[in-house]
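Researcher: Quick sanity check before group meeting.
Model: Go ahead. Protein one:
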Amino acid sequence: MSDVAHPWLVVGLGNPGREYAGNRHNVGFMVADLLAGRVGAKFGRHRRAVADVAEGRLGFGGPKLVIAKPLTYMNLSGGPVAALAQFYKVPPGQVVAVHDELDIAYGQLRAKSGGGEGGHNGLRSMSKSLGTKDYLRVRFGVGRPPGRQDPADYVLSDFSTVERKELEFLVDRAADVVEAVVTRGLEWAQNTYHAS
């Protein structure tokens, strides 16, 4: 179970800058923004890490959340995450990375602990900087690129018009998965959200 003495660090992975805002690769930022709104917190620049951070509690007297958006580019996300984990004394088991996932169909959400990075540069950087892969992940399926499109180009392009019709609902649901992982545990979140 979680250690109530320490907050949870929820990291939305993405790239900073307006030109990336609607990219598939930035869905972690979208979920982080929504979570911050839910806990009534505003993002501000952290004094010890290259990241925007919002702090709040899940519900009255609930667990404390530190919601972070690293301001380095995706492949350097680990440095700010490690700095925040150290600053807030968050154990790896209470770090949740929210990220896009090519190996899952669009619209599907998966929660897991540890495992490989599946070629995701943000996760690779986090694992290296944290010195472990044993943190939690909420994976937001974006599906594989059509035809022969390069996966790197695909994740750095915006969601399609068809995908955008569902995007708001799915971002909301991904935030629900994060909350479930924090308040009910990974197994409960998996049993509840993996079926759909």
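Researcher: Fine. The other one?
Model: Protein two, sequence then structure:
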Amino acid sequence: MIRVLIADDQAMVRQGFGALLAAQPDLVVVGDAANGADAVTAARRLDPDVVLMDVRMPVLDGLEATRRLVGDRPEGGERPRVLILTTFDLDDYVYEALRAGASGFLLKDAPAADLVHAVRVVAGGEALLAPSVTRRLIAEFAARPSRNRPRPTALSALTPRETEVLRLIARGLSNGEIAENLVVAEQTVKTHVGRILAKLGLRDRAQAVVLAYETGLVAAGE
């Protein structure tokens, strides 16, 4: 079962999302919170797999709450994965949410099926971005001068094949698409992805995308 915590300052939203997710056979809603501070406290107590996090909340906003949750390393456990939900698809929110450690970003007006799918994808360790959000993210990096993107020495630890896989991840390709592109088995791609994340100290593909663009390894339009 995938354990979910819902953080949103609107009671109707929490109840609606809760009812939708609780109706799924593989999902269980373990709690909810009306602000970011309560979300952090509840997550530490309830140990959810995924936190649905609103951006604009009182006391502590969703971005800072995400930073605190992702920074946590509970003894014997894993940090929860954060799926940002918002009505605002503004560039700053997208970029800062991913920099804060969010594993996904979905607009609240997305179909119910997309929300359920997003929770499962994020819980499984993948990254998820709405198409419109991905375009905005790439535009954000494209607007930045490349001279401000020094490559970290960590990238030198990657093999040529791993560097190639990282570029394809940044383009938004799935493991299956990368395997087809490189003419290798999908399991081989999964192995490469795991090694890339481990060598670069990244949690998931969302952070890999940010790093690839931020360091200039990939440029918008490639």
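Researcher: One line on it for the slide.
Model: The longest helix spans residues 186-200.
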